[in-house]
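Form 12-C: Joint structure prediction
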Amino acid sequence: MYNLLMKELKLGVSPFFYILPFLTGALMLIPGWLYFLVILYFCFITIPNMFAGYKTQNDLIFTSILPVTKKDIVKAKVSVIVILELMHIVVAMIYGMISIRLYPNLTSYFFGPSLGFWGLCFIMIAIFNIIFISMYYKTAFKYGAATIASITAAMLFAGGAEWLGIENSFVSDLFKGTGTAHLATQLSILITGIVIFALFTIIAYHIAIKRFEKVEI
Amino acid sequence: MLALDIKNLNKKYEHFHLQNISFQLEKGYIMGFIGANGAGKTTTIKSILNLTRMDSGEIDILGKNMAEHEVELKQEIGSAFGDINFYSRSKIKTLTNVIKRFYSNWDDETYYKYLKKFNLNENKKISELSTGMKVKYSLALALSHGAKLLILDEPTSGLDPVARDNLLDIFQELVQDGEISILFSTHITSDLEKCADYITYIHNGQIINSAEKEQFVDTYLLLNGKKEQLDMIKNKLIAYKTNSFGFTGLIHTKDFDPSSDIKSSAPNLEEIMIYFSKKEDMYV
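Section 2 - Result
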């Protein structure tokens, strides 16, 4: 499994995708922007490009010839996705902290980079993962439909959350008003987000294994 | 010992059916796997490597069941797909460094020996290699992890005659010690005449014949006769072609009466292949 992960990181993922989080993360410095987009860029750019690469380089046959189990093949690929997602979120969080210091008195229309917001980002990525990973492994090479479906779902979640943040006073207060000051509340939203992220990704991984076992290479 | 033992392999697709594929490859020999394009060579090879799921059948490699010991057996199998490239923009060095970690018996010394022997430059990208060089690189990888069975899909197609001959010489050298066995598919029959010990012929998803090379050719006779003689023997022929002088046809040796005055000669592999595919057309 470790060897497969190394194979993914060295061969499968272009170095560009390790740099991208630092570029997209910098968008956190735009004052009052729609920060969900910063994380969504991972879904827009990294995922389709990476999986197009796997397809053109015949990664599926290459990996299947190696002495590894199908389960480990899925595990390595899901791990790479998670590693990149975490990179995107963590880097964006760091830029977010800078952003808060740069514009301390900003009243933002959208969610600011609070801990609670990052919790929502984890949930958004969780939704993305469960759809993308499970759909992709129906064929293990067709990434188009899986990308469209999973991005749509993630965007609907982000859009819905922002809408609630504007329309609903409780949510608005929780993320933008006095609620932001309650570290415990914010932290608990973040932790809930992380738990959902872990849970959804693990479920996606198990569905993927089941589907991949039936895939003809 | 058998390097490869395939029993009653079946695999049904919508438009194609592999039917009861069975053949054996003795350890230390080269088996040529011939058939026209689309006859089922690659599907069979993919089934051996467990890349496609078979509907039924059993595959044993080096005495062990492939379905049960897949990961363990893949340590001992080397494979090359002549027409598929992997990570072609990466350097040989990069690719090898990734691949070698997977094999417990990897030997760097052997690897560099073969790189030198095959004239492969580590710093070249896969896309810069000629078709023959790519096959040689796959061989170098396989030999460095101590593969005992080499499964090669069309390793010689797309190669010029010199490179082909060179590759076939390498195959023969490899099996000399009796440790390594090779199964290679091809539609270039002259390759087999040069180096195969055994021949397995697949046609339309079915094995027509799998035998030792001389025996394989001896199974058939090529007949040359006059028009009047054709009617006498027509039913026994596998297929025939008529021309202004008479006919030529392929027959099972056991069906031919040597006392008849029809001229007979030993066919070459290409003729056997051609007449078998003609057989199909005749019934259409």
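Section 3 - Comments
The longest strand of chain B covers residues 2-12. Chain B has two domains: 2-216, 220-283.
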